[in-house]
Amino acid sequence: MKQNPLSFQLKLKPEDFLPATEEEKQSQIVMRESVSFWKDGMRRLVKNKVAMVSLVVIVLVMIFSFIVPAFYPYNYREQFKGANHLAPMEYSAEEQARIDAGEKVFPHIFGTDKMGRDYAIRVMMGSRISLVVGLIATAIILVIGSIYGSVAAFFGGWVDLVMMRIVDIIYTIPDILLIVLLSFALKEPLYNLKEVPGFGWVGVVGENLISIFIVFALLYWVGMARMVRSQILTLKESEYVTAARALGVSNKKIIRRHLLTNCIGTLIVTTTLQIPSSIFTESFLSFLGMGVAVPLPSLGSLASDALNGINTYPYLLFIPSALISLIILSFNLFGDGLRDAFDPKLKH
Amino acid sequence: MSEYLVDIKNERLSFFTPAGEVKALNDVSISLKEGEVLGIVGESGSGKSVTAYSLMGLTAHPGKLISGSLYFNGHQIEQMSDKEMRKIRGNEVSIIFQDPMTSLNPVYTIGNQIMEAVLLHTDKNKAQAKERAKELLELVGINEPEKRLKQYPHELSGGMRQRVMIAIALACEPKLLIADEPTTALDVTIQAQILELMMELKDKLGMAIIMITHDLGVVASMCERIAVMYAGKIVEYGMTEDIFYEPKHQYTKGLIRSIPRLDTKEHERLVPIEGTPVDMLNPPKGCPFAPRCDACMKICLREMPPVTNFGEVHYTQCWLNQKEEFENASCEKGAANE
Amino acid sequence: MLKYVAKRILLAIVTIWAVATLTFFLMNMVPGGPFLSEKAISPQATAALEAKYGLDKPLIQRYFTYMTDALHGDFGDSLKQRGRTVMSIIKMKFPVSARVGGISVLVALCLGIPLGCMAALKRGKFLDSLISVISTCGIAVPSFVICTLLLYVLGVNLRLLPTMGLTSWKHYIMPVIALSFYPTAYIMRLMRSSMLDVLGQDYMRTAKAKGVAGFWILFKHAMRNAILPVVTYVGPMLAYTVTGSFVVEKIFVIPGLGGEFIGAIGGRDYTLIMGTTIFLATLIIIMNVVVDLVYKLVDPRIKLK
Hints:
heterotrimer, B: alpha/beta, 8-stranded mixed β-sheet, 12 strands, C: mainly alpha, 13 helices, about 0% strand
């Protein structure tokens, strides 16, 4: 550290040693822009390429299943004579004749099924059903689960004990048993309900679909309830909430400022990850033949129906299988992206 | 052979984070003789821990040594392989961390964790290692060592765990002990006990200590040498008397002013250092302390201050000290011209 | 410890009782009955059958009869498979499912744990991305898709493996792949995130500062802490997997408990439904206790309550 300070020649002038003004000092302080929790999270989310690609895929699938069918020339229950088991882009004899006559015929992009129905529109309807089930079931699960979980956490004591015991019991019963029994049990009342004036919509939505919603609502909220409960319990114990209370912050403000911001991130993430799980279960049920009723297709039932013809018409199986995997995958990846962006505990 | 046990010269170290390069250490030089105690003082993020960790080859993931030479006890640390480093770590140089609550592995017994260090670096067999572990526990003032060996970290108090950490660090009688804020996480009464213990052990074993802390009070009583760090630089370095009685850097002066003292008059208030530390991602061009300095000059905002020496050891990096020299020089020049 | 065991046993009995009761009443609420679908049988014959199995008695009475019998270890005869007791059916079918399921869980553990660790260690590198992609796909693809894909490629197209039954070791390959796919992916994810968590802990730094070699740091100091979430997951998962997956058993034509259970529900084989449900519930509860004990063994901080 022996260095003659003036040996490295800096041109120093006496005025350099004059005191600096306050403004000059301030101009040196480069403050990093302080951002809110949500802004910061959004920025990270947008930066996450995988999550963004997944979001695009989800939007595309939604367009494919909700908007495209309206403009599609075929109907999902319409059967074409002599058009059974057409390969993708193939035309039936009758259609070929019409084309030869100069008429324009819309191609069967994915071919047709064994009943001669256009497979592309069936796949679209199938993904519509899967998405609807996924979204609505998740919404129901979210509402029931978070109410149940927060009630248990807030009251604590024996209320908590009893409520969580019930959750344990539901956890222990094999879900397949409950699903099957419930959907059988619900069939008749729903069928009768359809006839009651004012409940005609039940028939429009489909009794099976509604019974699936109810089954999901009754079964799968347990995971959500456990999550919400533990989240709230941790928050209740956390020192910053105690600190806020000690500072005299009102309960309302504590809930808004601390509980909600800390909980909502996790809640959004869990909900997003619940959607693919609901779709997953619905497809599994449909595969077992306990899902939506014919002729309404779902991706699971399409795959299940195609299983018998696997040797000769494998594409009938692969198209819905690939689509359902894609939907679940993109929801999962998007959910992961949300978690990376919004879970404050993962912030490094 | 160097006359020093530790001799770090012009160390530069950066963390390459996704947001950009963080220059954590900027031309840091430190030296320490055998059996001496060096205090490194500074606020969080000033680079004191990074300096110590780099000496042990423990630089965390995106960090990289850019340049400089790190000499320790006959080794050139920057040239050593990980395997060679492992032989030194825990053997010739040991470290005590800040938080004894989390620094011990919760799933193994105290005995297991002390014996591990002994077994790694000596030829002792298990029974001998156990004897040694018992000795070490006695050395750090833990009663009933036999019983403690079988206990898990969560069964001990914070002070007790820090003593265990010290026992692990001393397992192979290191030449150098790095203490990274060893008392920050402890109660005040325990703090004093731990510091006292460390000094006692230093005298008994003759090791050198690097004491990292933000508490000037701790270093005053323990250290021979003090390095004051700010924003990855050593802004002032000297013997303890130099730093306390003749502080040259405005930051050091600020630190000393902000120590509570018994003889402070009632109407006098403690003087805090205003402002916040620099953003290490976008460090200012000039002296990093300039925006918080109450004697800031125009040059401070523009240029990095050069080193000013005061005697053998004591030096600082501050334009204020250059000012006098500059004025003297220009006076001389003026005198010569006349 | 004794208090803990007593408490757990009591709790288990209460839970099993609750599950059995719930199942019993729900099952009977559902329209249909075991003998309705058999069209060839005359109403008189149906009535005679129902009388034989006591189905003509009031529900409450049947409930108490069943519960008393079950307490004595008698789960009754199957209503649909004449001349077979529920116990003998479970005894016959469970080993089949357990063998396939057990192998699958083993495969999942042997692949998932090391791969998850490797991903955590190579964080951000190519290997990590590769493992992440595989595990995300593994979680996203439903089991029936995997089964059918395997069946089509390996069984039908390439004719490498037999497609049905369980007569040779070759028969096990496809069902085991299908069954272990999801758990492998899940364990990989769990292991990766908990390993990353552990690697950032202070005690890992302590171990490094002691001079512990890389492999030992991982094996001794990180593994034992990082394995805990996997233990929690594997317990119940094991119970579910060894009792058989309906989809896998249906597609690969395996005579296991999973298929039997779905068949029983569809055919309203009341006694078989009850027997299998109680069996599964017991297994899950036992697994949960095992998980707690393993937890205690791995992490000394845990206190059994």
